[in-house]
Amino acid sequence: MDALTSSHCRRIAALRRHLAAAASVAAAESELAQLPGQQLSAERGDGYVFTDPAAQGILSAEQRDMYERDGFLVVPRLLAGEAEPFVARFEELLHTAKENFPKGMQIVRDLVLVKEGVNQVSEKAITKLQHLETDPVLSRFSTHPAIVEMLPAWTGPQGAKSIPFTTQFINKPPDLGEGTSRHPLHQDLWYFPFRPASAIVCAWLALEHVHRDNGCLFVRPGSHAKALKPHSKPPDGRANAGYLGIDGANNEDESEHDDELVYVEMQPGDVVFFHPLLQHGSARNVTGGFRRAISTHYVSTDCVFFDTATDPVQRIWADRVASKRRSNAVFQSKKPFTCVSRLPWLRPWRF
Ligand SMILES: O=C(O)CCC(=O)C(=O)O
Question: Which CATH class is domain 40-305?
C-alpha cells in the first residue's frame, strides 16, 4: 500500500510539473499576445496584408496569393548557375587563418560537436559564417540585383536594408547522431525588435540540391498569420548556441508533425522568400555530405523599433545586443511602441 501511495505521489508530482510547464507556456503566450510588438501586420493599401502594393509588377498574381496564404514563396532558378562561387569561397575561408578573415565576419561553431572532440577548425564543426558584408564574394548574395529587384514586394518601394547579423552562410554538417545539425521550429521575428513584421523578409538561396535527408527547410504554411510565440533553448540541450525554438515544440521530432509541415526541397539556384513569423526550421542532415545555403533578412526603411524597455520579449534581444557593446540609444526610450529610430544601427546596404 505504501509503495502504491509513493508511486501515486510520484505520478501526481510528474503530472503537476507537466501541467505547470504547459500553464507557464500558455501564460507566456497570453502575455506575449498583449504586447505592442504583437501588432504585427495590417492591411497595406490594396487589400493584401503580407505583401506591399509594390508587389504588383514584381510577383505574379499567383505568387502573391501563395505568399499571402502560406507565408513563403519559392522562386525556382532565380540565381541559377550562381551557387558555385559562394561554395568555393566558403571552402577557401576554411583554409584561411582567422586573422585574415574579412573584418567583422563571425564563425559559428557546432559547440556540441566541438565538445565531443570534433576539430573546431574543421568543416564539420562550422555551422555558419555570419556578417558577410565585408567579404568580396559572399557579400554578393545580399546585394544581388535579382534579389534586390524583388524586395519591394515585401519591403515597399521606399527602400530596404539588410539586417547585418542575418547575412549568413549556413553549412549544415552531417549529423553525428545527436541531432545537433537540426534547427528547431522557430520564428525569426523573435530576434527582431522592429515592426511591421510583414515589411521584413528573408531570402534563402539553396547552394546545392537540398532535400529531406540533408536537412532542407521545413515550414508550417499559414503560421505567418499567427502570433509570435515564446522561444527558448531546447531543454534537452541538443541544439547549438543561438538555435532557439518555439516553447513546447522545440524538442520534438518534426516528423511527428508531417501532416502540418512542408519540406521545402530545392535545387541549387532556387530562392525561397519567407515571412519572419513563418514557423520553420531544418531537420538533421542524415547524409554524409554538407548542406549549404546562404541567406539574408531585409527590413523596410519604414520599419520602426518599438520600446524594448516595456516589452520583455524585446528586452531579451536588447540585452543581447547591449552585451555585445553595440551601444544604441534606441533601447533607452521610455514610451511604449513609439517610433524611436529609423534603424540607425543597420549599417549595411540600403537598396
Ligand atoms: O538553413 C537552415 O538550416 C535554417 C536557417 C534558419 O532557419 C535560420 O537561420 O533562421
Answer: mainly beta
